[in-house]
Design brief:
0% strand; 7 helices; 81% helix; 114 residues; mainly alpha; Tetracycline Repressor, domain 2
Length: 114
C-alpha cells in the first residue's frame, strides 16, 4: 500500500471512529464515514466496500495495538502473561471506549450469529 493509500485508510478509520462516537454501529453507513472523512466516494470504496469491512479493519487495529503494548513489555509478559495481556487490553480498549466497546460487541454478535 502506498503512503497516500495508507494515509487515506487511516483517515477513513478515524472518520469511522468519529461516526461510532455518536451513532450505533448498526446505523453506521459508508455515506456517514465518507462525509466525516472528506475522502471521495470512489477512493473510499477502494478501501472499504461495506461498513462491516470498516469494522473488521477497526478490530484488526485494536488487536495490533494490544500486541504492540505486549511487545513493549516482554519481561512482564513472560512472568505474568494473563495479567499483562489484561492490562494491555484495558489500556487500548479504554483509550477510545465508545467506539471500541461497539467494535468488540459487534464482533461477539457476529461470531455468535455464524
Amino acid at each position: 500500500m502506498s503512503s497516500d493509500a495508507k494515509r487515506t485508510h487511516a483517515v477513513l478509520l478515524k472518520a469511522a471512529r468519529q461516526v461510532l462516537g455518536s451513532a450505533s454501529i448498526n446505523n453506521m453507513t459508508m455515506h456517514a464515514i465518507i462525509d466525516a472523512s472528506g475522502v471521495s466516494k470512489a477512493q473510499s470504496y477502494r478501501h472499504f466496500r461495506t461498513p462491516s469491512d470498516v469494522v473488521a479493519a477497526l478490530a484488526a487495529e485494536l488487536l495490533r495495538d494490544i500486541n504492540e503494548e505486549l511487545a513493549a513489555r516482554p519481561e512482564e509478559f513472560e512472568k505474568a502473561p494473563a495479567a499483562t495481556y489484561a492490562r494491555a487490553a484495558v489500556k487500548v480498549l479504554t483509550s477510545d471506549s465508545v467506539p471500541n466497546r461497539q467494535i468488540i460487541l459487534y464482533g461477539r454478535v457476529q461470531s455468535e450469529d455464524g
